[in-house]
Amino acid sequence: MKEEIMQLTEEIISTGTEEDQVVLDLLLKGLKQKQHFDKGSYIGALLHADGEYKDQEFTITIPNTPIIQNALHIVHGGITATLLDSAMGGLVHHILPPDKAAVTTEIKINYVAPGIGKELTCKASLIHKGNKTVVTEGKVYRDDGTLIAHSTASFFIINRK
Predict the structure, then answer these.
(1) 86 lies in the same domain as 24
(2) Which residues form the Thioesterase domain (predicted)?
């Protein structure tokens, strides 16, 4: 497997476009961050996500790179959904006790503007916390302050194993 990976990497470097090389660089740097525990998940590493919990709000910012763009060169809607789910789930993680976790049971997203610019920022806030479920709200903004998506999500609280 190592030889195949080395061969593919060399092929991309020698025959790929400049954009291919940028994408390869982003992938490898993200993987390196995951290996050094700078990122908690592969998806967080791939997206180069930076998160912060402050004042009952969880914020994640990601750079807008070719990895996350669709054929129209705007952020893919699925990436926006992942960003929303990650931020709202991150918020829930921060408000639960250490012996509890949560899983997404429902998510509703309204896309209102294209994902363009240098970065996207998602801000997640709490709507309701019960004994079994948590309801959150998330908003994704472009770097010019334009709202691109609004979401609500429900999470089911479970015991950690």
Answers:
(1) no
(2) 74-148
Given this model, what pLDDT does residue 39 score? 57
Q: Is the dihedral of CA 24, 30, 35, 36 positive or negative?
A: positive
- Read off the pLDDT of residues 39-77 as tens digits, 9 standing for 90 and up: 578 888 888 899 999 999 999 999 999 999 999 999 999
The CATH number given to whatever domain includes residue 135 is 3.10.129.10
What is the count of structural domains for the chain? 2
Residues 1, 31, single domain; the answer is: yes
**Mean pLDDT, 10 residues at a time, the chain of 161 residues:** 88 88 84 74 86 95 96 97 98 96 98 98 98 98 98 98 82
Range of the domain at 15: 1-38
Shared-domain flag, residues 33 and 82: no
Measured distance CA(65)–CA(46) in Å, rounded: 10
